[in-house]
Amino acid sequence: MNEHTIAPADVTRVTCIGAGVIGGGWIAHFLARGYHVTAWDPASDTESKLHRLIEAAWPALTELGLAEGASRENLTIAPTLEEAVSSAQFVQESAPETLELKQDLLARIDAATPADVVVSSSTSGYGMTEMQAHCPTPQRLVVGHPFNPPYLIPLVEVVGGEKTEHRAVRWASEFFEIAGKSVITMDREVPGFIANRLQEAIWREALHMVANGEATPAQIDTSITEGPGLRWPLLGPCLTFHLAGGEGGMAHMLDHFGPSLKSPWTRLEAPELTDDLRDRMVQGCEEAADGRSIADLVSDRDRAIIDVMRAIDGVRRGDS
Amino acid sequence: MNEHTIAPADVTRVTCIGAGVIGGGWIAHFLARGYHVTAWDPASDTESKLHRLIEAAWPALTELGLAEGASRENLTIAPTLEEAVSSAQFVQESAPETLELKQDLLARIDAATPADVVVSSSTSGYGMTEMQAHCPTPQRLVVGHPFNPPYLIPLVEVVGGEKTEHRAVRWASEFFEIAGKSVITMDREVPGFIANRLQEAIWREALHMVANGEATPAQIDTSITEGPGLRWPLLGPCLTFHLAGGEGGMAHMLDHFGPSLKSPWTRLEAPELTDDLRDRMVQGCEEAADGRSIADLVSDRDRAIIDVMRAIDGVRRGDS
């Protein structure tokens, strides 16, 4: 990317490389947001699979509200990777999670994409530093990690590699926001980024419990869907525990329940609860609460739990 | 408990010992389900605090649907613990989380409660084996661990201690189900039970990330509320990964992505993925899926994500 880079708000054409579940989900999302999408995938049945995926997603996307000019007709399948990216204004790569494959593919994309265009990878497992190793212009490559299905789940985690320019990261974050996603911009690479580290911690604890005969998969799922899972769509783990501290919030929670961090409630060892960590959590919760009092948060939480339970009951009963 | 124990469906009177946030939440729940509740708490302002809590919860409980005969008038504050339990048909203890306090309180409750009545503790941190140490008739003591707020979150984890009779555990599970809760009956004591072990794994990973400057509390919360948190009210972690395996489900997921368990995506070490663990996960997911195909689950998931996002948007906008 350079001084001629298009402004994120001016992008009208997006290229998606890879059209499986994730790539196809991105394509459905970009079409619904009104972009012209060019797709390429080496599989021979790409066109038919992609049409099925988009057909299946379109009613939901229509219900959520299509952008002006959004149409399934705005999709072009390119015959080669090079043609797909040659006039791209933004490229999203969603190939299988194999490092060598990603390295080679990103090098090919990088070589064929105009120099002022940002290239983003959907990888969930690799850092951009290792993936951009063979790229001629690695400074415009970023990770833009979505969640399945990308046309519904808003989260995208954006982070660069060692050779990525900061402005490419900033550009990608701004573009994803404009394209309707909720963006977390990370300052540095961490394996698994943020959400997958938290998910993976739950997943490994769950596997340990099953391996030890302490719980069945059905019990594990019920413990989430009938319990904390009902709070998490509104309040993440930090604000959830901010409320657990009562009127004293996170400060009270850490000062009084800090010792329980040493309890064997998971196989994951706790960090040392230093004064610095305590203060970061307290200030971070203030920031996340964004002016909402504990009473406001409790009242919103209760409202959200009721509405989420009703929404889920409706789905379980098969209401349309 | 003995052969004269009342049937769970015949219970009309419940005693709650401790009337703080959790005890008060239980009282609101039992009143809404039509029970007569007797409460005792050593604090001098119990009555006024309890009335405020019940007043605040009642509109939500009314909206969710009160049981026949449910009334806030069906609450009696007893002057002593002994009077509170003397004619109880079921006792729920929700005292502060201090082992010595719980041991002494449960011994007092046990001594004063009719022998054929089940006594349950709301503890989130202790096992019944250590709590029942000083009880004269420990065989009728169980853990019945709720989630905050107990009048909204359905989950209750039920487990006995070493001296608890199996029929007391069975009785409590049946009673909680009748009283409108979603019950997980555990075969054996595990520190933190199930949901809190999973929550605690997320929490510790989150604390590590903040301590290392890898993420802020606000980013951690956003990564859940805009990401996997939108799926968890419908599908727990096991069925979520069952879908991540595509048409092959959990079997495909473990056989193909098993090696990623070794990735440093969390500080929690993974268990060895033995054939036995693999088979338990695959069979457990079949059981949890309960006849629903992958396509059914995907379609329900998408419906649920949309409805949950709408519910949360409504709460954020302040719709009533």
TrEMBL record, chains A, B:
Q: In which pathway does it act?
A: Lipid metabolism; butanoate metabolism
Q: What SUPFAM superfamilies does this protein's entry cite? A: 6-phosphogluconate dehydrogenase C-terminal domain-like (SSF48179), NAD(P)-binding Rossmann-fold domains (SSF51735)
Q: Which residues form the 3-hydroxyacyl-CoA dehydrogenase C-terminal domain?
A: 192-260
Biological-process GO terms, alphabetical: fatty acid metabolic process
List residues of the 3-hydroxyacyl-CoA dehydrogenase NAD binding domain: 14-188
Tell me the domain of life. Bacteria
UniProtKB keywords? Oxidoreductase
Query: How would you classify this enzyme at the top EC level?
Result: oxidoreductase
- As recorded in UniProt, its EC number(s) are 1.1.1.108
Q: Which GO terms describe its molecular function?
A: carnitine 3-dehydrogenase activity; NAD+ binding
Signal peptide as annotated in the record: none
- Show the Pfam families listed in the entry: 3HCDH, 3HCDH_N
PANTHER family (UniProt xref): 3-HYDROXYACYL-COA DEHYDROGENASE FAMILY PROTEIN (PTHR48075), 3-HYDROXYBUTYRYL-COA DEHYDROGENASE (PTHR48075:SF5)
Family under the similarity heading:
Belongs to the 3-hydroxyacyl-CoA dehydrogenase family.
Q: Can you name this protein?
A: Carnitine 3-dehydrogenase
Species per Swiss-Prot/TrEMBL record: Haloactinomyces albus
